[in-house]
Amino acid sequence: MAEHKVRVYRSEERFVREEQLAWKIAAVAADPVEVTDEVAAMVVNRVIDNAAVAAASLARGPVTAAREQATRHAPPSGRPGATVFGLPPATRVSPEWAAWANGVAVRELDFHDTFLAAEYSHPGDNIPPILAAAQHTGLGGRELLRGIATGYEIQVALVRAISLHKHRIDHIAHLGPSAAAGIGTALGLQTETIYQAVGQALHTTTTTRQSRKGEISSWKAYAPAFAGKIAVEAVDRAMRGQGAPSPIYEGEDGVIAWLLDGPQAQYVVGLPGPSEPKRGILDTYTKEHSAEYQSQALIDLARRLGPRLGDTLASVRSIVLHTSHHTHHVIGSGANDPQKYDPTASRETLDHSIPYILAVALQDRDWHHERSYTPERAARPDTVELWRKITTVEDPEWTRRYHATDPAEKAFGGRVVVTLADGSVVEDEIAVADAHPLGARPFGRPEYVAKFRRLAEGVVSTDEQDRFLDAAVRLPELRPDELGELTLVPDWPLPTSSAAGLF
Predict the structure, then answer these.
(1) Domain chopping of the chain, boundaries
(2) I want to staple 290 with a disulfide (CB 3.0 to 4.6 A). Which of 25, 111, 226, 344 is the partner?
(3) What span, in angstroms and rounded, lies between the C-alpha atoms of 279 and 33?
(4) Percent of the chain with pLDDT over 90
(5) Which tens digit of pLDDT belongs to each residue from 83-122?
(6) Is the pTM of this model over 0.85?
(7) CATH architecture, domain defined by 293-430
(8) Which residue intervals define the domain MmgE/PrpD C-terminal in the entry (predicted)?
């Protein structure tokens, strides 16, 4: 792993392209190194994971709208186009719109993989645009596999090194460049072309975090899909010889100087050296529960605490979660968002409210991607009463562990202190989710398949599930004519939007 020092340069300073972070990202993407068997197996897992979540979201409003937008954009003459979740494999659309529709389907339930470090991310958001580009250009499974490995590698590297949320920039600013790089790898593009695509993708995906603050709307699912769509378009322009702002990261008026840590900023970004395998995906982890990642371990803890508390839940005086800075300030009471305690709040808002999630998980001793979020469930009087007794506080030790580089130290949980009406206290803590690689029940291939079966049940037939899984596990060997099998068709007619758009 090579460490690259990144800082801002004044316009009059000599700063060659080959030293720019965007070029170094492009060089990694252009490296023809093959994917290891371990990484290939994990790519297959994440393709299955994405499809599981997409299956469960096919009838939801945001996914329906995005799918309908995509169907209005046919592929150009002479190109096969790309598939869309929910539509037959023969129904193809232009690749940027397939990336859009599939990206929304994958992201809608907040239920796929994650990587947390200096920044937060959902690296599986790289898969829809890379897959769409691969299908559209007639690539096979080997090329797709290499592209996805690059997408994960670049996103993990950027997330480790550069915090966006500190400056209220949304995490899709790391996704645009990683997806563009992944597409460049899949297509076998030259470093120069990928460099221009990375710069364009970054420049056009630097947006604010308001999409995940206050009254959170369906745009939370659309934002990563937008970055994937932009990445496809950026690669297309770069292939036509069109350039990007340069230096995009380090320039005097660039992203770092004006949107991030400012003119004096310095970062160290670790990237694989020449011929070094891309292993970043192995440091990422998926979700067992449909909720923001920091709540995963706490749902598991609540399921453990629920039976211990039993009927005493009705006599709780207060519940305090001692946790990391991020959990407290983003999904906890430290966010100072009244919507996080509002029984009429949107699903997207409840998904980012750890007080709500703890209350429901304690009462139900379970979590469900639909039942746990219904308006009736959120408005239940005993739930509202318990919910409003739950607060969070930042604990420096949990913050330290959140940012730890040692996997054995790194933690995303916290300590729950329950004070009952009689003054007695019940407390417990958890470091990582049960499904985490270091958790009580780490996810392996059987767990990914079980999650897929569970979420696809009642949506697609068992035969269709079997067909998809057969294609997915053969991903590294798929022929170009087989890549279209990496989609799902439901058993019933899909709903349509209640309102018409422009297209």
Answers:
(1) 2-283, 293-430
(2) 111
(3) 11
(4) 93
(5) 999 999 999 999 999 999 999 999 999 999 999 999 999 9
(6) yes
(7) 2-Layer Sandwich (3.30)
(8) 289-473
